[in-house]
What does this fold into?
Amino acid sequence: MISADFGSPQATLFLLLGLAWAAVSFPRFIRWRTRTAMLKAIPTLGPSGFLSGYIGMYRFFSNGRELLQEGYDKYPNGVYKIALMDNWAIIANGRVMIEDIKKAPDAQLDIKEANGDTLQVEYTLSKQVILNPYHVAVVRTPLTRNIATRFAEVRDEIVAAFADLIPAQEDWVKISAYTTSFQIVGRTINRFFVGLPLCRDPDWLDLNTHFAVNVFISAQIINLFPGFLKPIAGHFLTRMPASMKRANKHLAPIIKDRLAKEEEYQTKDWPGKPNDLISWLLDEAKDERTVPELVLRVLAVEVAAIHTTAFCSTLYELTAHPEVIEPLREEIETVVKESGWTKEGISKMRKLDSFLKETLRFSGNVGLSVSRKVLQDFTFSNGTTVPAGVTIGVPAYMHHHDEDLYENADTFDAFRFYNMRSREGESIKHQASSPNLDYIAFGAGRNACPGRFFAVYELKSLIAHILMSYDVKLEQEGIIPAYEWHGATKDPSSTGVVLFRKRQEC
It folds into this structure.
């Protein structure tokens, strides 16, 4: 018989190792059991087994609209979950849930981490974009404050871009709505961001427009892989090294010149300093003022800004509803005569603002809005607790087509919000850039999209220019080219055609 000597050094060592293992493993086991119980308490839509979860994920990607609508109808003002490759998507429906998310502190529900996961920034951009998102402060403050100051340049570029890409002709000309939208928006925002002549450089524009598209497409593909395979997928799908090299060729000389000027004058506010995105980033960057770092931030802002599907959707809706063209033209002509082509003038175009907001409500491309990564267990006001590590989102399309929120929600009403603003005490409400519990195209609360003000002014300016300069119509009257759903995201047709001709005066 073998007897154990519990007083021996070896036995003591094994005992201590066992206790250490238990001390580490037991709390982890408890957290795992607690997390499992929390998730089990949340209703599941679709398959949820180890293997059937893959089927659920495929169904979500290929039939996202149907699945989200089913969940919206089945769990009104509630919470449910859908199986992803190696995690869960938590879907929250209704105003109360949005209010709960909106009120939660960033330490509990974080938008940066949610966006980082959605765009897989570690591979498509850089993890640093999430770790220190100082470019967001640039978009929120100096960029937005300078819309009025730089508006004349933006207007000039809109006129030039349309003249180059869609010359006004007497006969109808077929234009690719999707591709041309990218080109026009690319030039417009780059006039604001980096100015002439770079904003018209073909290589710079080609880089930015294709890079923006690749970021979203690559992220969608990477998110189809389980966590342990994401680095491999990211390695093969990323365009970042090549894009950085290409962007560096254009931006490095500009950035180095700005840094040299600061050194020469011993101040950030040197004479003749350009008022553009590069200067705003340099002012905000603090210690991160290297050329690669600043090139990265310019690309990150470009990706967010060149999200041209809103312009393409707006163009489709405009041509699908010819009855709104004359009322919009009358408003634009009146305002321009009074205030000119200015930020102030664009602000006064209330019917145009309503038309844009209705487009964003009715056919906007935002999939899961108000997205947050759960950093600490979070309990909704209905008692549902969501564990740390998952992401919460609200299905914007279903929310915006809810009859309890909008009368005749499935009917496009161009002046819906104009009429709302005509009510007593509501003249400043219901603007396209103003999110609320019913309208979440730009998110909600303090974390609403910081670039929404520029986006709205830009889109209104583009549509106003079209209305004043062209007649437009669909290739097939009243039939918008079919939208394409990719998971929770609704995108306008990439092959649709819109016909343009020089405006015929009545």
